[in-house]
Recover the amino acids of this structure.
């Protein structure tokens, strides 16, 4: 082995360790790949408030027909079906179970709507909706239109965001 200018011997790097030069090259190529893939990815969905918005017209206007179709599938099929449904607009009717302002964001208005059986909707009203929640009573019939954003199930309610109240009786 040769010595350096001070007469010290240089120790070769052990096999299996990556040199700084190699690490810099690896990081450079990874960043380049990320940049190129980000530039060439075709985005077909519009992201709005952490939810994917795909359609303006509701794909389902009756919760019972929706849940019948959903429940006719196996769990694996339901998960795949959910990926198709997520972000689409729905318009469903039910009865008001509760209405409140979010505890962490007082400007966010929420409604819990009973849509039949043991099924409930967690509804986040659009910030543009100017509704006085104190005028909603438990049991009021209500029709909600919004973006399907949370998958329901045995122990979880379905979630709708960016919702508006279409009708209240």
């Amino acid at each position: 082995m040769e010595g350096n200018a001070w007469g010290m011997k240089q120790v070769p790097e052990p096999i299996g360790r990556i040199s700084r030069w190699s690490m810099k090259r690896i990081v450079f190529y990874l960043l380049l790949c990320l940049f190129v893939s980000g530039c060439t990815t075709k985005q077909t969905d519009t992201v709005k408030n952490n939810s994917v918005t795909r359609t303006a017209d509701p794909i389902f206007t009756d919760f019972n027909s929706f849940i019948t179709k959903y429940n006719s599938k196996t769990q694996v099929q339901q998960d795949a079906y959910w990926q198709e449904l997520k972000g689409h607009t729905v318009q469903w009717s039910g009865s008001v179970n509760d209405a409140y302002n979010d505890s962490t964001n007082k400007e966010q208005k929420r409604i819990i709507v009973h849509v039949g059986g043991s099924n409930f909707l967690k509804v986040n009203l659009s910030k543009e909706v100017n509704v006085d929640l104190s005028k909603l009573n438990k049991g009021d019939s209500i029709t909600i239109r919004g973006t399907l954003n949370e998958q329901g199930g045995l122990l979880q309610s379905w979630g709708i965001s960016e919702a508006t109240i279409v009708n209240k009786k």
Helices lie at 20-40, 63-71, 75-85.
